[in-house]
Amino acid sequence: MIRSLILMIVLLVISGCQTYTTGLQQSVDRADETVAIAALNTIAKAQLSYSLSHEGSYATLPQLAEGGYLDSRFSTDKPLKDYVLTLSVNSGGGPGFSCLADPATGRQGRHFYIDSTSGEIHANATQPASATDPAIQ
Asked: Which of these, 78, 88, 97, 64, lies nearest to 36 by C-alpha position?
């Protein structure tokens, strides 16, 4: 009887620890997503400023950082800790840009997308996002 009671208490403690740990990880994931969304908004504003002063053309992340449109961390390969940014600048099909923010390998979180057409951030929970995914509110 006592042994069963002790086992039940141990299981409750372990369950509580797992719930706490899961909650902490979800909080970290949400914070990482917030950083990624903020970075995409910053990139879109930098691209708009760059475009206005460069006859409608757009720039790469290093060009935006060099020109002072973004801070210097964007001139590196990995400006965000837990998200990978992929910026594409259209050249042949007319001016424009698109940028993906995907969780780094081994990280959890949604995938995000923004482009020069709508300026809205789109999200996908399971794969790289695109313009066809729902926009975040």
From this structure: 78
